[in-house]
Structures are given as structure tokens and as C-alpha cells.
Amino acid sequence: MSVEDREKFLADMHVGVLGVHDPRGVRAPLLVPVWYGYEPGGEVLVQTGRESVKARLVRESGRFSLCAQKESAPYQYVSVEGPVVAVDDPVPPAQREALAHRYLDPETASAYLKANERQLSDDILFHMRPQRWRTADFSAFAAEFN
Fold it and tell me: Does the keyword Oxidoreductase apply (predicted)?
């Protein structure tokens, strides 16, 4: 994918899979699905519980990766990795609302925010600066079979 295409794809609404090194014994990296925010040219934003394993591992590592994919043909994915450049603690209300509204319709987002207000107040927001990108777009490959 071109730089423009990969950034547009990542900015589209997908559930991402966050990956971070897990040094606890002999373990593979921790991989967990997450809601994320991204604007082309900007930082990847991931909100999570302040005391979660995910947050602890991201703090220890100082970096993480995120993969977003299109789950129907023609398949596409964007994977990005980079350093954490900021942590908002607590999450600014506008950012919390923006993430909820990215993934939920307005009525459901408002209900979600209200119902989870207490839990969400324990969240932090990681800012990751994209450093390495990996992408694939199988559109041209799929077109050969149509």
C-alpha cells in the first residue's frame, strides 16, 4: 500500500490487535483486541485500564504494535509498530468520547459512556508514534480470479 492508502486504512474503523512483548517466563507476545484511534499523519491512541496487564507491559516495553485488518475479501491489513510518546492519565473526556463514538452509534456510545463511567475513569491513553509499517492489499490478486 502507498503511504496515503495505509494511513487511510488505519484511520478507518477496525478493531485493532495490540501486540506487546511479554517477558513473564517463556511466553509469546501479548496480543489483545482493542479499540484505537488514528488520524493520518498522527499517533495511534489506545485506551486501557491503568492496572491492566496490557498497560503494565506497554509501560515496561515502551512500545507496542497494532494490526488492523479487513476480514472479508479482498483482504487487507496494516500493521504498525512504534514507541509510546505520551500517556494521558486520566484519559481526557473528549478522547474517551471520541473512541466510544468511533465504534458505537451515538445513542449506544452515550449509554456506554454513562454505564461505564466508573470503570472508564480508571483508564489511561497511550500515544504511539508509528515507526514501522507492514501492509498488504490483496485486491489486485483477487481481481485476477474474478
Answer: yes
